């Protein structure tokens, strides 16, 4: 068995009453972990290769923490805390970057992106939404939809209220990852698996979905969504309120408020004197720097003006 892994994470999560995973939290996910860590996991948890999840109890967590104390002190400290858990704990090992086959495996990949160990589009998430269950996200954590009514009654009897924040397949990112150098006005509008570069500002109308992202020092008032292309913005971009972008923007791009730009959207390219050069599909402008997208107030056509000489990435 190779000691080389794509990713490894020790996590704690939620299951429904049938024992099915609903979600998993990885405080310290690893990309391409040290082979010595993999060897320790093999020794304690019996890992035999491949992409797999291995549940573990407090004694296994303690044993593994002891082995990793000098090899990986942070992972050792995490395992000491996980040994105290009353919730299900799991080791998720991904030898290959294949499409996720388990809920813990999918959540590990989403954590890698939001922890900035990978950028959006850099890992295989094919079939993600066919795999993940629809979940009630509440003040008591993730709850299976079939179990919500009973829990609501239980809480009412105890004089409390079950607050259901949303019903969705993915939670908000900030319940799992909170970057130290970003501003998010409404955390419910940024999903786990979003990539936020340093010094990004997501305003009240901003929205970033899983496997989407913005690079450093971007300003997001609109939406970075997945249509035909996976969206990613470059550095120093500004996306106006209620705008929706589904192409990969280069650096220093500006998108006017209210614009919807998909891969097939027709864009009128203008020269410095604002004369029409030609009409192209938006996808042909992906990865191009210093562009300003706007709508012509008279014709309604979407136009693109170069703010400087465009430089492809």
Would you give an account of this structure?
InterPro entries: THDPS_M, THDPS_M_sf, Trimer_LpxA-like_sf. Residues 132-172 form the 2,3,4,5-tetrahydropyridine-2,6-dicarboxylate N-succinyltransferase middle domain. The protein has 313 residues and is of the alpha/beta class. It folds into 4 domains: 7-132, 2-Layer Sandwich (Alpha-Beta Plaits); 138-168, Wheat Germ Agglutinin (Isolectin 2), domain 1; 172-230, no CATH class; 232-312, Hexapeptide repeat proteins (UDP N-Acetylglucosamine Acyltransferase, domain 1), CATH 2.160.10.10. It contains 6 helices and 24 strands. The strands form 5 sheets. It has a 9-stranded mixed β-sheet, with no helix packed on it. Strands 1, 2, 3, 4 and 5 form a 5-stranded antiparallel β-sheet that branches. Strands 12-15-18-20 form a 4-stranded parallel β-sheet, with no helix packed on it. Helix 1 (35-45) packs antiparallel against helix 2 (58-67). The model is unreliable at 309-313 (pLDDT under 50).
What is this structure, in a nutshell?
With 313 residues, this protein is α/β, with parallel strands linked by helices. Helices cover 18% and strands 27% of the residues. It has a 9-stranded mixed sheet, with no helix packed on it. Strands 1, 2, 3, 4 and 5 form a 5-stranded antiparallel sheet that branches.
């Amino acid at each position: 068995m190779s000691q080389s892994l794509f990713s490894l994470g020790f996590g704690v999560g939620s299951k429904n009453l049938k024992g099915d995973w609903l979600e998993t939290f990885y405080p310290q996910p690893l990309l391409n972990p040290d082979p010595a860590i993999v060897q320790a996991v093999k020794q304690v948890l019996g890992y035999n290769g491949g992409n797999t999840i291995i549940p573990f109890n407090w004694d296994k967590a303690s044993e593994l923490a002891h082995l990793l104390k000098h090899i990986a002190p942070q992972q050792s400290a995490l395992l000491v805390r996980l040994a105290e858990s009353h919730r299900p704990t799991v080791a998720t090992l991904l030898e290959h970057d294949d499409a996720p086959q388990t809920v813990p495996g999918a959540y590990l990949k989403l954590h890698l992106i939001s922890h900035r160990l990978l950028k959006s589009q850099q890992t295989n998430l094919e079939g993600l939404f066919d795999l993940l269950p629809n979940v009630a996200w509440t003040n008591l954590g993730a709850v299976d939809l079939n179990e919500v009514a009973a829990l609501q009654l239980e809480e009412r009897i105890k004089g409390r209220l079950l607050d259901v924040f949303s019903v969705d397949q993915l939670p908000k990112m900030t319940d799992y990852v909170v970057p130290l150098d970003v501003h998010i006005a409404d955390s419910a509008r940024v999903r786990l698996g979003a990539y936020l570069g340093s010094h990004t500002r997501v305003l009240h109308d901003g929205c970033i979905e899983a496997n989407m992202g913005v690079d450093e020092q971007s300003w997001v008032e609109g939406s970075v969504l997945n249509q035909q292309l996976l969206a990613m913005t470059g550095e120093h971009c500004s996306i106006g309120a209620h705008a929706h972008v589904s192409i990969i923007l280069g650096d220093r791009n500006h998108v006017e408020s209210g614009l919807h730009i998909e891969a097939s959207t027709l864009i009128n390219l203008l020269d410095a004197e604002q004369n029409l050069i030609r009409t192209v599909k938006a996808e042909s402008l992906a990865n191009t720097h210093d562009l300003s997208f706007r709508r012509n107030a008279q014709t309604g056509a979407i136009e693109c003006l170069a703010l400087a000489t465009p430089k492809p990435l």
